[in-house]
Amino acid sequence: RLHQTVTAMIDKGYTTFIEISPHPVLALPLEQTNSDISIIPSLHRDNDSLTAFLRNTAHAPTAHWPTGPTTLDLPTYAFDRQRFWVGSRRDVESVRLASGGRVFTSHWSVRDQPWLADHAVFGRIVVAGAMLVELAAATGVRVGCAVVRELTLEAPLVLADDTEATVQVWVAEPDENGQRAVTIHSTGGDEQDWVRHATGVLAGTAEPVTVDPVWPPENADPISLDGFYDSLADRGFGYGPAFQGLRAAWRRGDDVFAEVTPLENDGFLVHPATVDAAFHAALGDDVVLPFSWSGVQLHGSTADTLRVRLSLLDADTIRMVATDAAGNPVMSVDSLTARPVSREQLAAVHPEPVYEVSWVDADPTGPVGTVVVLGDGRYRDLPTLTSDVESGAVLPEWVVHTVAPATDGTVPERVRENTARVLGLLQDWLSRPELAHARLVISTQNAVDTDDIDLTVAPVWGLVRSAQTENPDRFVLVDGTGDIRAALATGEPQVTIRDGRPRVPRLTRTTLPASTTVFDGTVLVTGGLTGLGALTARHLATRHGVRHLVLTSRRGPDTPGATELVDELTTAGATV
User: Fold this and answer.
1) How close are the terminal C-alpha atoms of the chain, in Å?
2) Residue 133, H or E segment
């Protein structure tokens, strides 16, 4: 009754809800109940540090503070102003270091800045290079060096939907020319390494900006923008609404002119999505990312439309000047050099996370009750136990059957004999209604969670897992020697005993090294012309560079959609 409860609380005046949990799973239903309330998490998956908890806690008293301008009476005494209040969406905290310089820290996530997801490259959310250069410029303003003399981007910052990046900017003390070195790092959490994304120099001396007095430019040819952002998406650039600011464009020689609708600055000098959109009219056929910026000046403006001039300096470098309709400079970049990026290069910098099964220590959760072992003492087999229960004996809570592996014959023959015995026992167990309130424990040795797997016993686990899925709470798997009661006390359906301690399987996050080509030679995909098979074929051809595919299915070339799929894969460079 979550909806009824929350509605009743809202009716009584409650407006802020704090979810105490390892991950905020109730945020969506709460938002759907009432979009005006504030939902504050305590922790997030893969971000469970004390720092994250305290940061989330700090949001509680600010949940309903106004985010727009507020008029306040000034104090009647002289004061130095240093801002700590929550304001723009890119709040920055700063610390002056005893060793010299300052460190500025910010926190970025798609949760808090949803527009970040509107900049994707090959399906990954990549923080726009314009975001980093704007951060450098904004930091420069705070230390009296408002010009980004140069900034070299070394590695893209890739975000996932459920992660938060802690971004750190270090600014050195000024040198003899008044310039300051700057670096930008990020990390995804307390246990992850810092990645350096950019290095550069901030300066305080601005260069004059020359603007064109005539608009639209004379003798310039209009550029059609029909389907412009769709064509970029086909090549790998995924620009969402926040970054689709380009409205018109013209070309004259090596110069491109454009009109861009800017986003509200929202605490930025110039919104990074606007800075990025100013360069869109000059994008070519390659998927490129900014590599080196120089002479960046962000003046800021409330213009409704930006007039942008892009001048080609060489094959990879352009100059940009943007003004408002009155000719006032809004931003300028002396030069921006871009470099092509491939899907494999991006994956190598930030490999996609995958999940694997790991066995972890487990603690008991409750009492075990009565345990009997078949073939040991009173009950030599299942019929003996059943007969005793029918005669009035108390049904034990756990009945253990120890698998005695077959020793004669080849490995396939022993596998068949072992699984056949266990299958017969499972079927016999399920056929006896008097045993419905007990659980059968299948005990094995070296079936899982060991470097010395017994290939003749391991299939028993696969068989019983299927039975567990079809008959919940009827069967338990235990592997290893030791106190079986400790394993049963975990309450888990699958347990191993290693070094006297019970262990249970859990999905853990890991990262595989990126590879340009996963499979060499020819790859056969059965059922490869429809459904998951077709998706797999596309994934192999477009993501992993597989160049030879054999696709089979029951209907072969007559499968609906087969011709279109083959054409698509051939276009991607595969022989099908």
Assistant:
1) 54
2) helix 129-142
Confidence check: pLDDT of 516 > 60: no
In whole angstroms, what is the distance from residue 492 CA to residue 475 CA?
A: 10
Residue 573 vs residue 117, higher pLDDT:
117
Residue 414 DSSP class: H
- Residues 407, 156: Cα–Cα separation, whole Å: 57
What beta strand segments (E) does 175-230 contain?
180-187, 195-203, 221-222
Least-confidence region, from 43-52, 82-91, 256-265, 437-446:
82-91
3 state SS of 219? coil
CB atoms closer than 10 angstroms to residue 474: 18
Cα angle 35-40-42, degrees, rounded to a multiple of 5: 155
d(CA 54, CA 241): 33
Per-residue pLDDT for 177 more than 70? Answer: yes
Cα torsion through 391, 393, 398, 399, rounded to 10:
-40
Task: Give the integer Cα–Cα distance in Å for 288 and 338.
Answer: 6
> In this predicted model, what pLDDT tens digit does every residue of 550-569 receive, in sequence order?
999 999 999 999 999 999 89
- For residue 106, pLDDT beyond 60: yes
Short-list 451, 448, 450, 460, CA closest to 405: 460
Cis peptide before 216 (omega within 30 of 0): yes
pTM higher than 0.70, yes or no? Answer: no
Counting every residue written for the chain, the total comes to 576
Q: Is the pLDDT of residue 9 over 70?
A: yes
| Whole-number Å distance between alpha carbons of 173 and 511 | 38
- Judged on CB neighbours under 10 Å (0-12, 13-18, 19+), 306 is buried
CA distance 175 to 61: 42
